[in-house]
């Protein structure tokens, strides 16, 4: 399998395309630039099987409906944010984008447990990692040694917790109890900025020291 990081939308949120040898793919957090992103997928003959959302802040969902409609693929999100897709006040777009506020159709699947999910050849472990937002989740693909962490953990940083539903102590607990338990060589594919590894963040992340 291979994966591609593609910054999209007003905040250049990292979308990820994880693809197998048959060009079947899972899309993470398509944050915007829908027409261009869809054209790129079609030009590469990629066949999206699903859209997995790490959370429902506006900068992660801007192209959800366009991609879902173009490829007829279902959308997954945690139940804690099931209403955020349809509500610009909850997803933050009314505050940050004004007249360009974002709402999408509801998700097709709600994540209610941390049971693994199976999509085609892909099997992901699901970690509920709240703190940045109540329904934040991280998707771990053990076979490839990569975790898609959304805005929970960044290279030498962590997600902001000053937005509605954010909780700093909860985020630190999520990172330590879920993400830092992964093998140190695990790649962390974050929602913004460059990738990192669990080991690097254990050693160098100033927000995680002293715990």
UniProtKB/TrEMBL annotation:
Instruction: Tell me which SMART domains the record gives.
Output: Lactamase_B
- List the protein's name: MBL fold metallo-hydrolase
Region described as Disordered: 186-211
Cofactors that this protein relies on: Zn(2+)
**Source organism:** Alkalihalophilus lindianensis
Please name the Pfam families in this protein's record.
Answer: Lactamase_B (PF00753)
For this UniProt record, the keywords arranged alphabetically read as follows: Hydrolase, Metal-binding, Zinc
- PANTHER family annotated for this entry? HYDROXYACYLGLUTATHIONE HYDROLASE GLOC (PTHR46233:SF3)
Pinpoint the Metallo-beta-lactamase domain residues.
12-192
Q: Which CDD domains match?
A: metallo-hydrolase-like_MBL-fold
Amino acid composition bias (Polar residues), ranges on this chain: 187-198
């Amino acid at each position: 399998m291979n994966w591609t990081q593609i910054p999209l939308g007003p905040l250049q949120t990292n979308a990820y395309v994880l693809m197998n040898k048959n060009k079947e793919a899972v899309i993470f957090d398509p944050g915007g630039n829908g027409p261009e992103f869809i054209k790129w997928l079609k030009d590469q003959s990629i066949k999206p099987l699903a859209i997995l959302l790490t959370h429902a802040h506006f900068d992660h969902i801007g192209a959800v409906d366009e991609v879902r409609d173009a490829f007829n693929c279902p959308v997954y999100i945690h139940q804690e944010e099931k209403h955020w897709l349809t509500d610009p006040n909850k997803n933050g777009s009314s505050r940050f984008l004004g007249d360009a506020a974002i709402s999408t159709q509801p998700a097709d699947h709600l994540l209610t447990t941390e049971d693994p999910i199976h999509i085609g050849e892909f099997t992901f472990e699901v970690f509920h990692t709240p703190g940045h937002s109540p329904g934040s989740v991280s998707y771990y693909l053990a076979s490839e040694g990569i975790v898609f962490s959304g805005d929970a953990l960044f290279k030498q940083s962590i997600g902001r917790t000053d937005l509605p539903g954010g909780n700093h102590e909860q985020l630190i607990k999520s990172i330590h109890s879920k993400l830092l338990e992964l093998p140190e060589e695990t790649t962390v594919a974050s929602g913004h900025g460059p990738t990192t590894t669990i080991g690097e963040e254990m050693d160098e992340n100033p927000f995680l020291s002293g715990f």
